[in-house]
């Protein structure tokens, strides 16, 4: 992650004229969490207008990424000295949620970007951290990652003062819309894992263009082949004289991204409630055969009860997610050497609980809204299915049953989960 490794030019996406290009050109950059959330809401309001049409077109989200960059959201966590927002993870999690309310796919892209942009702080040396944060913040770069742990690791071989990454990953969120890609592999003949950040636009990174799933269709999460991508040994994150310097802090990547998941699940659910309730107010008809007939659907007691139940659950889920966001934000921004195994585990359990609630209540909501909008709302032209499809797709990322077990072990046995690729 030195200047030599990272200052390779990275080509930008082809321009695509959109009305939002200059939307914030003359606006001062937000300076408080509240202002950043207002900016995120503006982005969300733009995205939600044509989210269904863009989902069906299933094109690489070049314009959507440009929107995130124009709004300043890509560098929200970046240092102020390099033009970044200088905000905390607590704010970043809430921004992810707000953006996902407009488009779950773009909320995921932004959330994954934040995690990979923080990867240097998680595992790199102080010198590498400074280089990476200046690079991505000053250039407004978006991160992607070819790090799916369920696949075989990339193979890393030594060639003099260079490392050569090769292999294939089934999933690489961000894909070709990312400016920088995080690689992870195992040094040949050892069990040593190595992370490195490389420019995406190079011949050795070949995307399969095969992401065509039920939901989260605009996340560029298809396969990628890594063909002899070279980086200097000096770019191996966290290595000093070819030896890794471990910290418990290194393992925060998993709870941090699990809470990213939680927040874009919550955003998707909020989008579902807002979209469905707007339809109910304008298009749903009262039921004329119940014996307690109403003139308007909005007077129907079962609709009022239904929306009340769903929103109450979402508010409760947001409360636990916000608590988890505040707690992990404290340790993410604290000196790296201070984190203990116990504290890390307690935060992971809290995040597991938040994720469980977001999944179960979100899936209930994205299905229940059809009962509250009526049969005509099942028309493809209405597009309510996008919320269930998005949430159902990504909530399969790792089995929720194991998150339940983690919480149960904590409650019954006072045990915290041991760090792994999924805990």
TrEMBL record:
The keyword Transcription regulation does not apply. Residues 155-229 form the Acyl-CoA oxidase/dehydrogenase middle domain. Residues 1-11 have a biased composition (Polar residues). The keyword Nucleotide-binding applies. Signal peptide: none annotated. It catalyses: dibenzothiophene + 2 FMNH2 + 2 O2 = dibenzothiophene 5,5-dioxide + 2 FMN + 2 H2O + 2 H(+); dibenzothiophene 5-oxide + FMNH2 + O2 = dibenzothiophene 5,5-dioxide + FMN + H2O + H(+); dibenzothiophene + FMNH2 + O2 = dibenzothiophene 5-oxide + FMN + H2O + H(+). Residues 260-397 form the Acyl-CoA dehydrogenase C-terminal domain. InterPro entries: Acyl-CoA_DH_C, Acyl-CoA_Oxase/DH_mid-dom, Acyl-CoA_Oxase/DH_mid-dom_sf, AcylCo_DH-like_C, AcylCoA_DH/ox_N_sf, AcylCoA_DH/oxidase_NM_dom_sf. GO terms for cellular component: cytoplasm. Pathway: Sulfur metabolism; dibenzothiophene degradation. It is found in: Cytoplasm. Keywords: Flavoprotein, FMN, Monooxygenase, Nucleotide-binding, Oxidoreductase. Its main location: cytoplasm. Belongs to the DszC flavin monooxygenase family. This is Dibenzothiophene monooxygenase. It comes from Cryobacterium lactosi.
């Amino acid at each position: 992650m030195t200047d030599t490794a990272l200052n390779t030019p990275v080509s930008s996406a082809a321009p695509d004229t959109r009305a939002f290009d200059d939307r914030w050109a003359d606006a001062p950059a937000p300076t408080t969490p509240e202002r950043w959330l207002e900016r995120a809401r503006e982005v969300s309001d733009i995205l939600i207008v044509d989210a269904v049409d863009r989902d069906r077109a299933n094109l690489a989200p070049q314009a959507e990424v440009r929107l995130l960059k124009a709004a300043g959201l890509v560098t929200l966590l970046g240092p102020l000295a390099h033009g970044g927002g200088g905000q905390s993870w607590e704010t970043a999690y809430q921004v992810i949620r707000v953006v996902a309310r407009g488009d779950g796919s773009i909320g995921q892209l932004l959330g994954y970007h934040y995690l990979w942009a923080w990867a240097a702080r998680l595992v790199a040396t102080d010198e590498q951290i400074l280089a990476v944060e200046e690079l991505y913040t000053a250039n407004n770069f978006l991160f992607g990652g070819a790090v799916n742990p369920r696949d075989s690791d990339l193979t890393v071989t030594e060639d003099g003062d260079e490392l050569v990454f090769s292999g294939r990953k089934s999933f690489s969120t961000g894909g070709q819309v990312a400016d920088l890609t995080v690689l992870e592999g195992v040094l040949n003949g050892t069990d040593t894992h190595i992370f490195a950040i490389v420019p995406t636009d190079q011949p050795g990174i070949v995307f399969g263009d095969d992401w065509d799933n039920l939901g989260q269709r605009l996340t560029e999460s298809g396969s990628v082949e890594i063909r002899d991508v070279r980086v200097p040994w000096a770019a191996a994150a966290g290595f000093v004289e070819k030896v890794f310097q471990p910290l418990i802090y290194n393992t925060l990547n998993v709870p941090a991204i699990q809470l990213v998941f939680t927040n874009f699940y919550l955003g998707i659910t909020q989008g579902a409630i807002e979209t469905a309730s707007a339809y109910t107010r304008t298009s749903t008809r009262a039921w004329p055969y119940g014996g307690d007939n109403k003139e308007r659907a909005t007077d129907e007691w079962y609709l009022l009860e239904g929306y009340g139940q769903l929103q109450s659950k979402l508010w409760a889920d947001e409360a636990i997610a916000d608590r988890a966001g505040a707690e992990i934000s404290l340790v993410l921004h604290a000196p790296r050497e201070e984190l203990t195994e116990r504290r890390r585990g307690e935060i992971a359990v809290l995040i597991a609980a938040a994720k469980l609630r977001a999944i179960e209540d979100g899936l209930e909501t994205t299905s229940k809204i059809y009962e509250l909008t009526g049969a005509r709302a099942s028309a493809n032209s209405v597009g309510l299915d996008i919320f269930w499809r998005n949430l159902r797709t990504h909530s399969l990322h790792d089995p929720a049953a194991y998150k339940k077990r983690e919480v149960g072990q904590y409650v019954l046995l006072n045990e915290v989960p041991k760090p792994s690729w999924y805990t």
